[in-house]
Design brief:
homodimer, alpha+beta, Aldehyde Oxidoreductase, domain 4, Aldehyde Oxidoreductase, domain 3, seven-stranded mixed beta sheet, six-stranded mixed beta sheet, about 30% helix, globular
Chain lengths: ~750, ~750
């Protein structure tokens, strides 16, 4: 039984009421006096040189207050990695995809701004464009960025063990190719920003973002203003999933337009802009050669992966390492491994971080092939996965230690939840069971800013205020952090006021991305709370003349253990602290002990401070007339280390299933010469409530040594990653066809069924 | 020469640009979505019983969203002192002055709210009223508050030494009576509030206020919500002068109306409401009997003082002790002293804290009489003041030690600035010289909340953020605190971002009243900066393997003294701190060591941690035909201990002269049966720019042992207090008439000139 009073208990979100009543303020709700509205002019060409921009007619339109082009900007490129910092807030002489930013207008209303865009005359010289990553890699293909030969952003080669020897001793070898489509975030809140330069030259900016401190630095660099003069303020975030980590052009343009006009400026992206100009999931092509022993033990794998990153690099170099390192090696023991990844530019919208971040594609590929091999050898897929599964304490090939690992428990519990051992192979025709796996880490190395700091201040009525730079993207981070503070201080979560996500008011934080909040920020909050608790105990032990070792904290007071009636309330401790000039403010910092495996060439070390695992089992029914797949039942087991808020973890599992099902069965951005054809909610089909199967969420707890109370992360990523693999395998189990490309549409199924007959 | 680089230098206000460009946001500038506008219904009777309130017609007016009366409130009385907490946010069954709050309305605009007030039917039973404090003190006078016999709020009796013996050995005894009128604050920003209850039941409130933490507590008590659930947020304050220390009815009503409607509510006071329903200076009647030796040395004083506090007590009990303790005894040695004060209720608007807070009235009285005695004895007024002046180290009769005292320097420098020794007695007819004195303390005892705490956080670019709960009322507190942080950390003030006055974000602070900011908050900031500096030096000394005693901080870096080239920049130290999980956040708290001399009966101890002093000399010209007084020249010397920002101190002196001249020569709220007749800027005449004389500000520095860099306080109060005394004496010097009541209007002068002839 869990001895904790507060953490580990299902806890409704502290801001739920605010959200359901519509009071919660998102960036688009912010209205400032004298505010102007901005719009961005975008390239209609997939690749072109800008020869001239004439804004004079637009300038004269009444109500237009400012127009900026790339030449009006500091022209500093930005990006996730220094070596491939390739994007500008506004393009200067070249555009690289349909939607690339060319100019921005601020006007007294949106209609006038829109009209002004039409009055801007841009002369383009179209350049040859390339849309297919394999074409883009060829010698002689149009080069999209001058520095990148063969349009390669990154082409890491990784070797562990001796694959030749591995294959030589294999009983069975398969070579298969898999493809995955892109995927759009479809966060319900489109990007929106309000920027205001104050009279002293300080920039205030409200926008949905996962890491205020990271975004502050990018804004500082690209706008050339000191980092302390940029302030990101909290507004609620309507979904992030990795897509709110980077600066977007609207942030940059709103800031510059505000600077130029001296007024606040709001820019709201349309849904179409959201689809085509923010970040998507990387489409991939994955070739896998696998050698196994008769009993199913994997001996060697050789993988070539091509990821299409679109017109700019974004997190591309990270994705092509996450795919093998997390998607494969963190779930499956591979003694001999050879990998060649290619992250390739094309003249298409940009791909970047999205829940799973390179892992779901690889899981679909290696997990589909694993079932194919299991079929070849007559081994049960669950059996096969258990045989090759990594274990607690294991050192992965790239020298990361698994401080905890519940992968086997996840496999067992997810499969048994659907009655795998009894039902597998015994379902009626058209029905099938499948299983998929997923892994994740908590905390990437982001350089020295991988640190979170928290402050907790005692109030005069004995409640506390927690100041954290972290963000709640909607997943419940603030509630989870309040639980930690409450647990350590003997309070209820409702007695903690959480102030978050303001670079000027709240201390340094890594941000709510790279799965860091529970592990990193949570640890900082725990340390800050412990610090405050020790201060409280010190004050009380002096006042009561008792040994501090004999003191305990509960019910808003400091008690002498076993001596009822002698206690100091928090409120009284506060008064004592004032008299003694000891501010009752706890502080705590935490940096995960991790290495940077993403720098060029060096691919060994501790990738994440801890690893999480998941398994999803599904039962599907395939309609052989229509090709439609219905998910009948689904169980998702997730090793989060420890569930600080089980209610939030279960919610995250459910959301991840939805995203995984979209990826598996229906979502696909469709392009024609770089133009996305289905950039709206009518034509881009993601799962709706009616598409959702019943879900059995299973929380597996392994109590990791590093995180708060043993918690690791609860981003849901192992679940998203496991779903397409599970679905593909279940479809095979149901109707005997193997679809090797995502999404698995009815058309593909009907075609495969036809071919099979 | 001052060795400091930053403090002690004239420093323009950091927010000056924001203010002169109109960007600075005051409470009335805040506009929230869905905001309603409130108005308050006020009593037309000076004293009446409320028999019935019928809001039904007002309720039906379209656009009216809520109406509250006293019965809809928690009915908790509030006040500065517990024993005389006598005021309600809204009256229940009785009104006590014309303007007392009876009901409040929230509507979609101000006009509808105004119209709704007219539709509320209140049945009153008028009660006998009393307007003159002497009448009010008589047996049988109408009793305004049930608890207060003879309408006395406080009637302190103080005895030091033996007055009978003192008078018996005196060579000369005088007995005179003086009277002073009230004075309105006339802050250019009228009271204004925006209150919003959020969905979780937390109150956010923007209003001009001098102490967010004190106001938070009063709102919490009167609204019956936990103190942590009340958040006061910063807005700029357009003048305070003591008048923004207490909760006003609009704060209370806006909060309740917001709670009732679920919408933000704004209430703005009209200038008339500002005059009649906020706080004014106490009118006083002061009887003084003084015994002196032939050489001018004071032997004994017996004083009776009656202060009219209006319908509610407010700070009345404090004022009737400040008058003798600060106004007299902190400037003048009185070996034998007997005092009887009376603070009396009348059915008039409420008097409370106002710059000087009881001292200017007493200075006018005792300083006028001092010149009369000097005249009787043929002693020069400057001589007479120097002879009786208190000195550094002196223990005052009420056992307060003067840790520093520049009173004599002030007297000498102010008088010599106008050429007193050469010119006194030699001016042409109709011209005269006069001198007046003033004293002040820093820090009253306000119970355990007399503590200020500050936090200073290092930013990644080496600039810092200062978090302080203190307020900048317009006097430049934020700039002064930034100077202190900058001084300690080797930065420029512009490299400090000051976050202030937000009870949720900034730590506990006493507030910008009771002259506390420089001494108390300034000390806390200095301690926090020192704490951060020590952390920086520790990090650098470890990194450079150098002894921390050899390190120094300057130019955003930590250096080894005398070893150029080996240093760590603040930005690098920040990165090091992240790696080591040491948050670079300095914290500091400060509580002045003072006693509570205001509690009933106990009148001994350290009244303020330090005392300040001032002297004002004036040259006037009296037009004997019109009675008009023109101030030809004025010198004001002020012992502030140390001027952290001489520019702000000089500005404060100039503003104080203006307020002092208004009190001396022209300002007076005029009443007819409790109705103020001149409650507007046309009929209430305060000094305009054209009325201002040339001013010679003189800063006297005495480097107090307790304050930051030796600074004490710079509220300007000794200067306000000294002006009426100086003016009255100069008029006597010019035309030989002694006016014993303030203001010294042309009418009084003409009448006295007539009588003299």
């Amino acid at each position: 039984m869990d001895a904790h009073q507060i953490v580990g208990k299902p806890t409704p979100k502290l801001d739920a009421w605010e959200k359901v009543t519509g009071v919660a303020q998102y960036a688009g709700d912010i209205s400032l006096p004298g505010m102007l509205f901005g719009k961005i002019l975008r390239s209609p060409h997939p690749h072109a040189r800008i020869q001239n921009i004439d804004v004079s007619r637009a300038q004269r339109l009444p109500g237009v207050k400012a127009i900026i082009t790339g030449k009006d900007t500091p022209q500093v490129k930005y990006g996730v990695y220094r070596y491939c910092s390739d994007q500008l807030g506004l393009c200067i002489d070249r555009v690289r995809y349909i939607g690339d930013e060319v100019a921005a207008v601020a006007a007294i209303d949106e209609e006038i701004a829109e009209e002004a865009l039409e009055l801007i005359r841009v002369e383009y010289e179209p350049l040859p464009a390339v849309f297919d990553p394999q074409e883009a890699m060829k010698e002689g293909a149009p080069r999209i960025h001058d520095y990148a030969e063969r349009n390669l952003v990154a082409s890491p080669v990784v070797n562990f063990g001796d694959v030749e020897k591995g294959f030589a001793s294999a009983d069975h070898i398969r070579h298969d190719r898999f493809e995955t489509a892109g995927q759009a975030h479809c966060a319900l809140q489109p990007f929106s920003v309000v920027a205001r330069f104050d009279a002293s030259g300080k920039l205030e900016i409200w926008s949905p973002n996962q890491s205020p401190f990271v975004k502050r630095r990018v804004l500082s660099n690209t706008l050339k203003i000191p980092v302390s003069h940029v302030r990101l303020l909290k507004s609620h975030v309507g979904g992030a999933f990795g897509g709110r980590s980077e600066m977007m052009s609207l942030d940059f343009c709103a800031a510059l337009l505000s600077k130029k006009t001296g007024k606040p400026v709001e820019i709201d992206y349309s849904r179409e802009e959201e689809f085509t100009t923010t970040r998507q999931r990387h489409p991939m092509m994955i070739d896998i050669k696998t050698g196994v022993k008769k009993d199913g033990a994997i001996l060697a794998k050789e993988i070539t992966l091509i990821a299409d990153t679109g017109a700019y690099a974004s997190t591309g170099p990270m994705v092509v390492l996450n795919s093998p390192f997390i998607g494969l090696l963190a779930a499956c023991r591979v003694p001999n491994f050879k990998y060649q990844g290619f992250c390739v530019y094309t003249n298409k919208p940009v791909c970047g971080a999205m829940r799973g971040h390179g892992v779901p594609q690889m899981r679909f590929a290696v997990g589909s092939q694993m079932d194919m091999i299991a079929g070849d050898l007559g081994i049960d897929p669950v059996e096969m996965r258990l045989k090759n599964a990594v274990e607690p304490g294991e050192i992965l090939p790239y020298k990361s230690r698994l401080t905890s690992c519940g992968l086997k428990e996840c496999i067992e519990q997810a499969s048994e939840a659907l009655g795998w051992s009894q039902r597998k192979g015994k379902l009626p025709k058209g029905r099938g069971l499948g299983i998929g796996l997923g892994s994740c880490i908590t905390g990437f190395n982001l350089g020295p800013r991988t640190t979170s700091t928290a402050l907790i201040r005692m109030e005069e009525d004995g409640e506390v205020t927690l100041l954290t730079g972290s963000v709640d993207n909607g997943q419940g981070n603030e509630t989870m952090l309040a639980q930690i503070a409450a647990q350590e201080l003997g309070l209820e979560p409702s007695e903690i006021r959480v102030i978050s996500a303001d670079t000027e008011l709240t201390p340094q934080d890594q941000g709510a991305f790279s799965m860091a909040t529970t592990f990193v920020t949570g640890s900082a909050v725990k340390r800050a709370a412990t610090d405050l608790r020790e201060q409280l105990i010190k004050i009380a032990s002096e006042a009561l003349e008792a040994d501090s070792a004999d003191m305990e904290i509960r019910e808003k007071g400091i008690f002498i253990k076993g001596t009822p009636g002698r206690e100091i309330s928090f409120a009284d401790a506060y008064q004592l602290s004032l008299k003694r000039d000891i501010p009752l403010i706890g502080k705590g910092s935490f940096t995960p002990k991790i290495d940077n495996l993403y720098s060029k060439g060096k691919h060994e070390g501790q990738l994440g401070a801890a690893f999480t695992f998941g398994a999803v089992s599904v039962e599907v029914e395939v309609d052989q007339k229509t090709g439609k797949v219905k998910v009948i039942d689904l169980a998702a087991a997730y090793d989060v280390g420890y569930a600080i808020n089980p209610m939030a973890v279960e919610g995250g599992i459910e959301g991840s299933v939805s995203m995984g099902l979209g990826l598996a069965l229906q979502e696909e951005p469709v392009y024609e010469r770089g133009q996305m054809l289905n950039a709206d909610f009518t034509n881009y089909a993601f799962p709706l409530a009616i598409d959702m199967p019943p879900i059995k969420p299973i929380i597996v707890e392994t109590l990791d040594e590093g995180g708060p109370y043993g918690a690791k992360e609860a981003s849901g990523q192992p679940i998203v990653s496991a779903v397409p693999e599970a679905i593909a395998n279940a479809i095979y189990d149901a109707v005997g066809i193997r679809i090797t490309s995502l999404p698995i549409t009815p058309e593909k199924i009907l075609k495969a069924l036809e071919e099979k007959e």
